[in-house]
Amino acid sequence: MRRSTLATPSLLLLGFVAAAASLSACASPDPYGDALRMDLNRVVLYRSGVGYFERTGKTDSDTLRIKCRKDQVDDILKSLTIVDRSSGQAVSVSMPLDPQSWANAALATLAPGQGNIASVMDALRGTTVTLTTRRGDATGRILMVELIEDVQEGVEKSDYRVSLLDGDEIHVVMLGDVKSLTFHDQELAMQLNRSLDASAGEGMFQQVEVMVKLSGKDTHDLQLSYVVSAPMWKPTYRVVLPEDPKGKALLQGWAVVDNTSGEDWADVKLSLTSGAPIAFRYDLHSPRDISRPDMSSRGSSKRAAVAMGETTIAPEAALAMAPPPPAPSAPREEMARRADKKSKSRPMPKTAGGAGGGAGRGGYAFDDDMAADEMMEAEEKMDSGIDMEALARSTATQTRAKRVSGLTQFDLGSRVTVPDGSSTMVAILNTPVEAEQVFLFRPGGAGSGYENNPYRVVRFDNATPFVLEPGPISIYAGGSFVGEGISETIATNTRATIPFAVEPAIVVTGAVTSNATDNNLVKIQQGTLTVERFSRQVTTWTIRGPRQDADYKVLIRQSRLGGAYAIKDAPKATEELPDAYLLPVEVPAGKTEVTFEVIEQTPVRTTISIYSGEATRLLDTLLAVDNLDASARAKLKPIVERRKEIADIDTKISNLRERKQELDQRADQTRQNLEAIKKDPAATALRSRLSKKLEDFTKEGDLLGRQIVELTSQRLEKKIELDEALEKFSFETPETPKK
Questions:
Q1: Which end of the chain is more exposed for a tag (fewer CB within 10 A), N or C?
Q2: Is the dihedral of CA 468, 474, 480, 482 positive or negative?
Q3: Whether residue 710 has pLDDT greater than 90
């Protein structure tokens, strides 16, 4: 067996993976060494757990050394871009692999408490090693490491099969038989030892370094951008309710931003994006080979024909994407008019960040500067409670909002500094909205002890072109806090319903009954009648509460029955949810109790023969329909008349058969009586009377039998006529006009 030491193979992708982890999570003060200092310039945070980071810097060197975390390698591979800002062109880079990078690639498979020697060996494919086993040594380049599972004597056993390529031979060794492993690349073994020393206790947060070779001119003005995992920003809202049940409320929004990147965000441009962008992890650093068929022998004798190109004129609308909608101008409501009168006075001081800062006006915000005396006036009002007008003027949003590929992006108007391991709050929303206070009853009530009580809710319309992300909402009214709720995602042009308190003075109860309607004729097709009936569930809601001086509204959230069930005659203002209905019930002033009935029904269709007993009634009902036009009535009337004639004959036959059956029973009883007294000499007169009765019964029965036969013959003739008329007859019942 030959023993040779081979040079480390150049695995470009593996080296890049091992070295190019999160640029945002560098722990050292200068992660780029002496070659280049890349300043963090811009951060965009998303709600999908990722962040976009942008860095800039200049260098006269042709080498860029980057230290970064290896737990975010795949994100870097998906998104890393290096652009020369002077030319606007992407920079061509090469990343030579060194033993240190390769060693780190192997160690990257061993997170704390995870991994095994098989994972390390698989990461070092191509490396020349010697495996010492009980049966001897095996030397070669690591080709692959495969998991082998087997069942022996009912016991599951697993092991790894290691394939070594030695020249033109492949040696197969079971890892369970290996006693020791020897690296032929001594520098690689040394670097593995050094990496283990450096990474002890650090796990996936260990930093690695990659050296990027820059091509082209000597001086480079670079911009690096990439997407890596980052904490999602968290929204929180505040709603100040109007004094009236309906009117303008104040909606404010704040974003809580966390910096856990491992470095300070010093004087950076910060943007926050809402919506539902898709983000995921994807393993790009593990080599994946797919076997391919060898097609070398095919197509060698074929020659492609020259084809002329074609052009088409595309619609103008398809040549470019529609521009994003312009940001709405700042609202100018009554609550801000007093600030307009003194807008030329000294502006409100600006802050670099935090709640209530005034940096970066414009976009979706109140943008009026306030004079100092107005600030004092607002503060005086705030001292006595949460005043809507003062609060609207004193809080200026720090962002400008715009639409980006269907997402909402809030850009801060001024740069911010967020130290590592800290959080900050940014005002993103400050606008009046249409709102109302109502009550909402959900099945089960408002919680333990409140099973029959509704919630107090605030409903407001998101008339902005932006999506409001889920978050807590604090509710204020009458100058103080009155409750809080939490929202799901509130899409644009939708209405939010936010429960914030329980109303124990109102009691809601419900009772459910089920029934079904009579059959209704829908269609006649060649003697077959399609009939429809409705299965119904009726829910009766009763609302009881104290007498009020004004009307109030209770929304009842009733779950859908599913299937084909639908509400019959739903109230005009009913709102449909994915799994329920919101049914508005108005309680008039002075009333203490209101009953409201909800009917859910689903049609059930069956088919019957025109000769069935129910068909005659259905046809008579159909002829009585008011909206049946004259031509349809004329077409249908002969069919109905023939069917009624047959029905009359059926009635007569039924009556005759019933009479004949009764006579037959009496005749049988008379025969039994005659048999009982036939040997009694004293019963001569009785036998005579019974014999006469039996004769009369027999004659009458024979007459009834002849009538039945005659009527049956008549029925057959009329049925043949009706069948011939129905052979090509088709009719559909006209729909009843809706009221």
A1: C
A2: positive
A3: yes
